[in-house]
Amino acid sequence: MPISTSPEYYGYALSHIHDSGFVEVAGSAADVLIAALGEDNVRHGPVTDLGCGSGTLAGKLADQGFCVEGIDQSAAMLSLARQRAPGGRFRQESIFDAKIVPSIAVTAIGECFNYLFDQQNGAPALSRVLKRTYAALPVDGLLLFDVATPERASTSGKHFHKGDGWVVLVETTADKSRATLTRVITSFVEQNSVYQRHEETHRLRLIDPDDLGEELKALGFEVSVSTAYGAAKLPAGCMSFMARKTCG
Ligand SMILES: C[S@@+](CC[C@H](N)C(=O)[O-])C[C@H]1O[C@@H](n2cnc3c(N)ncnc32)[C@H](O)[C@@H]1O
Fold first, then answer.
1. Which atom of ligand 1 is nearest to the CA of 3?
2. Closest C-alpha to 248, from 213, 220, 218, 212
3. Residues in contact with ligand 1 (CB, 6 Å cut-off)
4. How do residues 147-156 score in pLDDT, each as one tens digit?
5. Phi, psi angles (nearest 5°) of residue 59
6. Domains of the chain by residue range
């Protein structure tokens, strides 16, 4: 199926920066999922990772014997993911269109449901993904994800981060009446001893966690909500959801 997002999001530079400096959340989410599946005595089986990025979760799950199918709109992210989890299957698609194969767990880590890269993203599109996820899971199957809530508007301002061979400047503005965030991201990445400048603008739809919790319960999930994955706290204004399918 053709992707309905634009190639301008998470291009090579930002994918490299994400992979180099921003994958702690995905690593912690993977640990939480592996522990939860282990408590259910589930030690292998298919896992679908929506918005898999550079494959941190896929790599950790694959190391434990799970078989991961990753879906992402970014070709650069998928190329990193294929290197990290060579046994995984990766598809370049919008998570709002993608078919979700039968899976023992489905994940969406790092605000994937919030990004407005795909113009069809909105409450109805998210509802359709949640319904498709429910249908793809067995009874006791798990859905693990996090979202940026309206509280994330408090992160407005200018921030910078740096790593080995890169610097990234992020200017965030919030539109509280529309419940959206805009991040203008300027990055400088060293290539052949020269720093190349790259720009991306990301818009995110902020999601009410109470409404989302009610929607998951109405579908038949048992839900627990947190501001962390295990001991690793999420960024301010983000919430994680661990949802367990309760009936067929
Ligand atoms: C912040 S990154 C998180 C990546 C990965 N889950 C992690 O935690 O390392 C968000 C990812 O979601 C992907 N994404 C956002 N909206 C998407 C959509 N509609 N369809 C597919 N991928 C999407 C982006 O390309 C990006 O790789």
1. 20
2. 220
3. 5, 9-10, 18, 23, 25-26, 51-53, 56, 72-74, 77, 94-96, 109-112, 115, 117-118
4. 999 999 998 9
5. -65, -45
6. 12-149+207-245, 152-204
CATH class (in words) of the domain with range 152-204: mainly beta
Token pair for 117 = 């890269």
Core vs surface per residue 134-150: b (16+ CB within 10 A) or e: bebbeeebbbbbbbbbb
- 159-215 confidence digits (pLDDT tens): 999 999 999 999 999 999 999 999 999 999 998 899 999 999 999 999 999 999 999
Distance 110 CA to ligand 1 centre (A): 7
- CA 165 to mean position of chain CA atoms: 25
Question: In this structure, what token pair is assigned to residue 97?
Answer: 């269109």
CATH number of 12-149+207-245: 3.40.50.150
Strands (E), the chain: 45-50, 66-72, 89-92, 105-108, 142-148, 157-163, 166-175, 180-191, 194-205, 221-226, 228-229, 232-233, 238-245
Q: Residue 3: what pLDDT? A: 44
In whole angstroms, give the CA distance from residue 186 to residue 167.
8
Show the tokens assigned to 217.
Answer: 């319960």
pTM: 0.96
Ligand 1, atom 26, residue with closest C-alpha: 53
